[in-house]
Amino acid sequence: MTDQPQTDSKPKKLFIKTYGCQMNVYDSERMAEAMGAEGYVTTEVAEEADMVLLNTCHIREKAAEKVYSDLGRLRPLKAAKPDLKIGVAGCVAQAEGAEILERMPLVDLVVGPQSYHRLPAMAKAAGEGRKSVDTDFPAEDKFDHLPTRDLPKRGPTAFLTVQEGCDKFCAFCVVPYTRGAEVSRPAERILTEARALVDRGVREITLLGQNVNAYHGHDGGLGGLVRDLARIEGLARIRYTTSHPNDMDEALIAAHGEEPKLMPYLHLPVQSGSDRILKAMNRKHTAEAYLRLVEKIRAARPDILLTSDFIVGFPGETDEDFEATMDLIRAVGYGAAFSFKYSSRPGTPAAERAPVAAEVADERLQRLQALLTEQQRAAQTAMVGREVEVLIEKPGRLPGQMVGKSGHLHAVALSHPDARPGALGRVRITASNPNSLAGEWLGA
Ligand code: SAH
Ligand code: SF4
Ligand code: F3S
Question: Measured from the CB, is residue 268 less than 6 Å from ligand 1?
Answer without folding.
Answer: no
